[in-house]
Amino acid sequence: xxEAKKELPRAPRFWWEKTxxxxxxxxxxxIYAFATxxxxxxxxxxxxxxxxxxxxxxxxxSIFRDIGPIFVEKAxxxxxxxxxxxxxxIPVTFDAKPTLVPGFSRLRATRADNSQTxxxxxxxxxxxxxxx
Length: 132
Hints:
This protein is an alpha+beta fold. About 55% of the residues lie in helices and about 15% in strands.
């Protein structure tokens, strides 16, 4: 197989974001019937707004700040460490750093040569390998 055409497997965060997106689309319409069982004042719009809004916030945190559930970020750190030499032009290691919110963590990238923490977006744009 040619090196330029070889595809890397999908990262765990990719599946987390796709699952959240599917839940944002499907869950608001199905949860309304269950929500009205607790209180008759609950409206379909309010239910949709709360459920979809929460899902959208989680997706945006995952995409832009690399924040997600602990199990997703630990799996993402293992995945990124496994393929770091193929993806990035500098030696880098990843780990999951806990956040203030219980159950959530953030992916942290550290340069292996000088132990300097580097931002995820700077790493992707400045040190990502270009496929020919």
